[in-house]
Structure formats: structure tokens, C-alpha cells
Design brief:
Distance between the termini: 78 Å
Radius of gyration: 25 Å
Strand content: 15-25%
Strand order of the largest sheet: 2-1-3-4-6-5
CATH superfamily of the largest domain: Thiamin diphosphate (ThDP)-binding fold, Pyr/PP domains
CATH topology of the largest domain: Rossmann fold
Number of strands: 19
Shape: globular
Largest sheet: 6 strands, parallel
CATH architecture of the largest domain: 3-Layer(aba) Sandwich
Structural class: alpha/beta
Length: 570
């Protein structure tokens, strides 16, 4: 067996022993040994994509929803550079990603050899671990080195603070198997019983919780993250503290304040007494209003969130504090001592929030329901409401996630995810496809994505899936306002060059995008037609056309309606 084939087969075998079940391959020559070893392994589902950026975000979506590391493989050169945005997102959002970049051997580097760049430490500090695997040599001891290295990489991806790891693998010719060659000087097999080379102990015990102080004006803020929201919902119920939940916290269930975005911007509420205590978990960075609210708190307890299913995945320095207001960082919290666990507490503070939420919810819904034409905020609200239990919704950055935050009612049974680590426009279609594939592989129901037109145009390749590849049941709902809608609500909107530089109109219908990928297409205009439009199977595109100026004006009317309603009850 030639050295390149031996190395690739051992790496893949050890990865599966650690738990690898999904891999994404972007075609190339230098990565041939890895690609062939992956497709030959019966325990790995391989996805092939022609675009490395799309491939890496597909892997990101698979890993985010499955909560398991996914491998992504490419050839040398600019192919590896195209992985970088997904690596950055995986780093910031704590998604375990195994980045395997093929490389030329050392004797070809720095010589002007074709498709050769410096790939050493390519992703800088964005990875939990980097290793230059080195060229495979037929000498004793290589198998132990390769297998132990894989186990270290796997442990770095899933333990402590989950995230991406990078193995740079140099291959010499020949790149294809030649099993008739001379035998390898030592057995290539791993441990008996399909065990990994390095066994790891079970998860650590649950950390001792921090007992919260007993205050009246407490608030719980649940930001983006993959953690269990139930303890925080229970804490809110017991203490009477309002719970403010971003959509991708998956904590906006019964009892959460669904209109907190408008309430925090309402003068009547904002001018009231500041919170004595804020308990936050996840990444609370979606709105300026939340950050301003955190700055008013007398004390801010940050819970270092742990990945669902991994009690060990928490480090004291792994926490979010974008407003720089944290006074305490803890691994878990317990309710204040002395509370009656059988009798939830009601105070003037809790009743104020309850009245404000009720009035704001009524006012907001009245404005949205006044017209049957499907606006961007109403689409976000109604889409979540119409999804069946067990569904997955991927939310695009910019306005889709903000409209969901501003309008969706509290509900259970739908899992919301999004690329909130860096909140970039990159790879949103591909991430949604990967998320849907993982969701449905684990027995989940239908999957949906709410994206903007620029995000779809930026990642059109994510819709192109070759014959024979796994295809998700995914409805991609696209808000097409012919440009960058988020800028219409920012300071740039008044600039004379706004339309060209920020609005960036493109004039492209999503019907044309769907046609390129040979996908079913529906154009949706009326709110009452949404349930019917969502029906269907497979990958499909649903377009809702809006106007940026009109959407910005509607959002201002929503805030004004909430302000007036809250004034009446406070």
C-alpha cells in the first residue's frame, strides 16, 4: 500500500472510531486519498459540493444541528482559503468542525509549484488546534502517531470550548490506491473492538450552581446559543423575573416576553427603575436595546453556557459579555434561597412587565394584521406560527433574524438556528441545507429557511446539489426587496449615494435563481396563502417581494404603536 493511501485510510478509520458519521468533500486532485477513503467507509455519509465555501458551510450546518463534529475536505491552494469564513463562524459559535486540507509535500513548497500556497496555520487563532500532519513515511510508529493525533483533534473539537480544528495533510504521489505494492511495515489496524486509540472518561459532574441573590427587579436574558433553556424558563416562573429571549436561544416559549425588543425601546419602560440583577446566558448581541439595558443593570451574572448533551463543555473564560458589564461569571445558577418552590412570585416589577407585554403584543399584532399583503415583519411572525411541531427553522442574518426577534410569538416545538457567531452573509443557503440534512437524519420533521435576497445571491451555489447526493426537505423562503434592507433603518439611509453603495439593487428574481438549480418555485403575495405555499417536499424556493422603504416605515409604525400602548398601561 502506498504511503498516501495508508495515511488517509488510517485517519478516516480513527475518525469513525471517535464518532464521525458525516463528511463533506470538495473535489480536487491532491485530496484524492482522503476523498476515496471517506467514500469507501460504510459508516460515513459523504456529501460532495463543487464550491469549497459552500462545502464548508454545509459541514457547519450539519455539525451545528447534529451537535457532532463533521469533517470537510479540500485540495491545496485557494480551496483551503475558501474554508476560512466557515471556520470563523464555527469558532465564534462553538461548532465542532474538522477541517482537513490536503497539501503539497514540503519539497514542493516555496518553489512556484502549481496550486501550492502556505497553508501552515492558515486559520490563525480561529481553530482550537492546528497540526501539520507531515508526509507519510513507511516506518514503524507512524500508525500510533496518526491515530493519537486524530484523537487529540477530536477532543479539541468537542471538549472544553467546542470549535474547529485544522489538520493539514501533505500527500506525495501516487495519490490513488495501489494495494499490490509492498506491505506497510506495521499493522494499520486500530484498537480492538472498534475503540478509539485514546479513550476519554465520561462527562464531568454537573457544576455546583451559584445561588442568586433575592431581588425584585431581576431580568433573565437568553442570547443565541445551543444550551438547555428550560432551567432559565423555570427560574423566570419561580422568581417572577421577565425572560427576554432571542429567537435562536430557543427559549421564547410560554412565559417569555415576546415583544421585549420594542419594550426596551419604549420611553415609558426605559425611563423606569433599572434592573437590580440581570442573569444572561448565550450571546445576547442581537439588538442595541438589549446591550443598553445590560449597561443599566446594577449586577450582571453571566452563565457560561454549555453545549447541550455535554456537561463538560464549559470553561470559566468561555462566556459572552459584549457590553462589558459582567460582575460574576458562573457555570450554573440556582434560585434565590428561601423562595417557595410551589408558589411562583408576583411583584410590582413582574406585573409591570406582564401589562407591558400584553399591551405591546396586542398593538403589534393589530398593525401587522391591518393589511393582507405579506410584509417582512408579518412573514416572520406568521412563518413561525404555521410551522408544525418538530420543524427546524434556519434564520438568515440581517433583517430575517431581527424580524423574527421583533414579531414572533412565544411557542414550543420549533428549533431555530442561524449563523450568529459572526453573523455574516456567507454560506447561509449551504448552512441551511446542512442543518436540514442533519435535522432529518436524526428523525426531525420539515425544515425551513428565512433568508434575504442578497444572502441567497451570495450563496447560490448552495442550491446546486448533484444527482445522487442527499437532498433535504427544505423550503427556502426568500424576502426579495431588491437589495440590502437592513441599511434602510440605519444612519446611512440619508446619504445621497445610499441606493448605490448600501441599497445595492440587483434586479434579480428568485425565480431565475431557482431555475438555474432546477428547483420548484413559488411566488407568495398574500398572508392567507402562506400555509399552502409552505406545503411540498424536497428543496424548493418561495419568494416574497417587498419594498425596502415600505418595510422600514412599517417597523417604525410598529414601534410607535407599542410606545402608545405601553403609555396607556404604565
Amino acid at each position: 500500500m502506498n504511503p498516501s493511501t495508508a495515511l488517509a485510510r488510517v485517519l478516516v478509520d480513527e475518525l469513525t472510531r471517535c464518532g464521525l458519521t458525516e463528511a463533506v468533500v470538495a473535489p480536487g486532485s491532491r485530496s484524492t486519498p482522503l476523498a476515496l477513503a471517506l467514500v469507501a467507509h460504510p459508516d460515513v455519509r459523504v456529501h460532495v459540493r463543487i464550491d469549497e465555501r459552500s462545502a464548508s458551510f454545509l459541514a457547519l450546518g450539519l455539525a451545528r444541528v447534529s451537535r457532532r463534529p463533521v469533517a470537510v475536505v479540500c485540495t491545496s491552494g485557494t480551496a483551503a482559503a475558501n474554508f476560512h469564513p466557515a471556520v470563523m463562524e464555527a469558532d465564534e459559535s462553538g461548532v465542532p468542525l474538522l477541517v482537513l486540507t490536503a497539501d503539497r509535500p514540503p519539497e514542493l513548497r516555496g518553489t512556484g509549484a502549481n496550486q501550492t500556497v502556505d497553508q501552515i496555520g492558515l486559520y490563525g487563532g480561529a481553530v482550537r488546534m492546528f497540526a501539520e500532519v507531515g508526509t507519510p513515511d513507511p516506518v514503524p510508529g507512524m500508525v500510533a502517531y496518526w491515530r493519537s493525533l486524530v484523537c487529540r483533534a477530536w477532543g479539541s473539537a468537542v471538549g472544553g470550548r467546542p470549535g474547529p480544528v485544522h489538520l493539514n495533510v501533505a500527500f506525495r504521489d501516487p495519490l490513488t490506491p495501489d494495494d499490490g505494492a509492498r506491505p506497510w511495515p506495521e499493522p494499520l489496524e486500530g484498537r480492538e473492538g472498534a475503540r478509539p486509540w485514546i479513550a476519554r472518561p465520561g462527562p464531568a459532574a454537573e457544576p455546583a450552581p451559584f445561588t442568586l441573590p433575592d431581588v425584585e427587579r431581576g431580568v433573565i436574558v437568553c442570547g443565541d446559543g445551543d444550551y438547555d433553556p428550560v432551567p432559565f424558563l423555570a427560574l423566570a416562573e419561580l422568581t417572577g423575573w421577565p425572560l427576554l429571549a432571542e429567537p435562536t436561544s430557543n427559549a421564547r416559549r410560554v412565559g417569555a416576553v415576546s415583544t421585549y425588543r420594542q419594550l426596551l425601546a419604549s420611553p415609558s419602560l426605559a425611563s423606569g427603575p433599572p434592573p437590580e440583577l440581570v442573569v444572561s446566558v448565550g450571546r445576547p448581541n442581537l439588538s442595541r436595546q438589549t446591550l443598553a439595558f445590560l449597561r443599566r443593570a446594577e449586577r450582571h451574572v453571566v452563565v457560561s453556557s454549555r453545549t447541550v448533551g455535554d456537561p463538560a463543555a464549559s470553561l470559566p473564560n468561555s462566556f459572552s459579555d459584549p457590553a462589558r458589564t459582567a460582575t460574576d461569571v458562573v457555570a450554573a445558577v440556582a434560585p434565590p434561597a428561601g423562595l417557595d418552590l410551589d408558589s411562583p412570585r408576583h411583584t410590582d416589577w413582574s406585573r409591570t412587565w406582564e401589562r407591558a407585554e400584553s399591551a405591546a403584543r396586542t398593538a403589534l399584532d393589530a398593525v401587522l394584521d391591518a393589511e393582507e399583503t405579506l410584509s417582512e415583519p408579518r412573514l416572520a411572525r406568521d412563518l413561525v406560527a404555521h410551522l408544525s411541531a418538530g420543524s427546524l427553522l434556519f434564520a438568515g442574518s440581517s433583517m430575517p433574524i431581527r424580524d423574527l426577534d421583533a414579531t414572533m410569538r412565544a411557542r414550543c416545538g420549533v428549533r431555530l438556528v442561524g449563523n450568529r457567531g459572526v453573523s455574516g452573509i456567507d454560506g447561509t443557503v449551504s448552512t441551511a441545507v446542512g442543518a436540514a440534512l442533519a435535522h432529518q437524519a436524526d428523525g426531525g420533521g420539515q425544515a425551513y429557511a428565512l433568508l434575504g435576497d442578497l444572502a441567497v445571491l451570495h450563496d447560490q451555489n448552495g442550491l446546486i446539489i448533484g444527482p445522487g447526493e442527499a437532498r433535504p426537505d427544505l423550503a427556502v423562503v426568500v424576502v426579495n426587496n431588491d437589495g440590502g434592507g437592513i441599511f434602510s433603518g440605519l444612519e446611512q439611509a440619508g446619504h445621497p449615494d445610499f441606493e448605490r453603495v448600501f441599497g445595492t439593487p440587483h434586479g434579480v428574481s428568485m425565480e431565475r435563481v431557482a431555475a438555474v438549480a432546477d428547483l420548484p418555485y413559488t411566488r407568495l403575495e398574500w398572508a392567507t396563502d402562506l400555509p399552502k405555499a409552505l406545503l411540498g417536499e424536497g428543496l424548493r424556493v418561495i419568494e416574497v417581494c417587498t419594498r425596502r422603504a415600505g418595510s422600514a416605515a412599517l417597523r417604525r409604525r410598529l414601534q410607535s404603536a407599542v410606545d402608545a400602548a405601553v403609555d396607556d398601561v404604565l
